[in-house]
Amino acid sequence: MAVTDRKTHGLYLVGVLLAGLTGTLAHAGVLSDDRADAMYHSYNGGGVEVDGPSVLVLKKLGESVALTGNYYVDSVSSASIDVVTTASKYNEQRTEVSAGIDYLSGNSIMSLSYTNSDEDDYEANTASFGISIDMFSNMTTVTLGYAYSWDTVENNTDSSFSRDIDRQNYRFGLTQVITKDMLMEFTFETITDEGFLNNPYRSVRFLDPGSPVGYSFQPEKYPRTRTSNAASVRALHYLPWRASVFGEYRFFDDTWDVRAHNIGVGYTHTLRDRWILEAKYRYYTQDKAEFYSDLFSRPDAQNFMGRDKELSEFHSHTASIGLSYDFIQDGWSVIDRGSINLLWKHIWFNYDDFRDIRDTSAAPGKEELYDFDADVLTAFVSIWF
Amino acid sequence: MNGKCLIKALALPAVLLLTGCADIEPWVKPYERAHLADPIMQFGRNPVSDTYIIHVYQSREGARGAEGESGGGCGCN
Hints:
The structure holds two protein chains of two kinds.
Chain A: H1 9-21, E1 35-45, E2 48-61, E3 65-78, H2 81-86, E4 90-105, E5 108-119, E6 122-135, E7 140-155, E8 158-179, E9 182-195, E10 203-207, E11 215-219, E12 225-239, E13 243-254, E14 259-271, E15 275-286, E16 314-328, E17 337-355, E18 369-384
Antiparallel strand pairs in A: 1-2, 1-18, 2-3, 3-4, 4-5, 5-6, 6-7, 7-8, 8-9, 9-12, 10-11, 12-13, 13-14, 14-15, 15-16, 16-17, 17-18
Chain B: H1 3-19, H2 47-60
C-alpha cells in the first residue's frame, strides 16, 4: 500500500467482480465459451513501476453453470513524487485471487463471486452478487449488481495500527440493440464507503515560517464516509468494411465534491480475418475534493485535510493502440481458437493544483505545477476450448 | 440510424417494464444480427485486459464506477 495507490484496492476488486467476471458471460441467455487468458501487465510513470501476471479462466460445467477464476499480481517499485518528498522508495507485492460461479436459467444469468487481495499492510475482501436478464427477444439486456467489501488497513511503521473500511456497490446496467449495426449501453453505479479512508502514510503540507523551506507536514485526515454516483453511456457502431467505431461519456459526482467527466472515442479495424487493430483516445477531467489543498495556511487549518493528487483538480489525455492476431481459428487439438494480443497506452497527467515541491528555488505555493507521463502495456494470450 | 428508431429503442424498455408487457416484435430480427455478433462489436472484448485498465484509471483518478458492463445485448445467440 505505502504512500500511493491505496484507495483503490478494495474498489478494484469490485470493478473486477462487477465488470470483469460478469463481463466474461458475454450476455444473458447463454454462457460464454470456455476460455483462458494469460496476461503480463506493466505500468511505468511518475517514478512508479508496476508489473506482474494475471490469469483468468472460465470453464462451463454443463450448459447452466460456469466457474471463473482469476489470479493477479502487482509487483510495485515506487519512487513517486509523494514518496520522494515525504518518505523513502519502497517495493511491495499485492496478490489477488478471485473465484466465481455463474448460473444460467432461462434468459437470466445469476453470478456469485468472492475476491481477496493481500499485501503486507492492506487486505481487501469483496463478495458480490449479480443478475443479467435478456428481454424483448434479446433486444435488451438488464444487469443488476451488488457488492460488499471489507478491508483492513495497517501501517508498516506501527504494528498496533489497524483500521477497517466497509464498502457497498450498487450497479444498474442496460444494453440495447438500436439497429442491426448499433448497440448502446447505459450504466449507473453508486458506491458508499465507511471507515478509515485516508492513507496512514500520506501527509499534507502547511505554511510554516519556522521551517527552512517555509512549510512543514502533518498527517492527512479524511472524512469517514463517502458516497459517489457515476453514470455512463457507450455506443458501438458497425462499419460496412468489418470495422467499428466506439464512443463513451461518463459523469461522476461524490459527497467530497469531486466532480469528473471523461469522454472516449475509438476505431477498430480488421485485416484478413485474423488481425484486429484498434486505436482509442480518452480525455478525463476532475475538480478537487472540498478538503484538498496543495498548501494549507496553517497546521490543523480545518477538520479534514488532504493532499492526495488524485483528489486535486487535474486532467489527463490517453492515447492507445491495440493489436490482436488469431493464431488458431479453425481448431487445433483441444483448442477451438487462440489469439495473441498487445495493448499499449500512453497517458499524460496534468495537475492544476498540485505543485512539484522538489523545486526548492520557488517560494511555497509558487513551485511549478506537477505533470508526468505514463506507459501502460498489456500482452496476453487468449484461448477458447 | 434514424431518430425515430433511436427514440423507440431507448423508450421501449422503460415503458414495457412499467406496463409489464414483454411481448413485443423485435425491430432487429435474429437473422439480421450477424454484425452485432462480430467480436469487434463487444464492449468488453478482452476481460483480463479491461479489468486491469479499470484498475489503472481508478488508482490515479478521483472518479470510480460505471466503467461498463463489458457485454450484454448483442443478441447473437
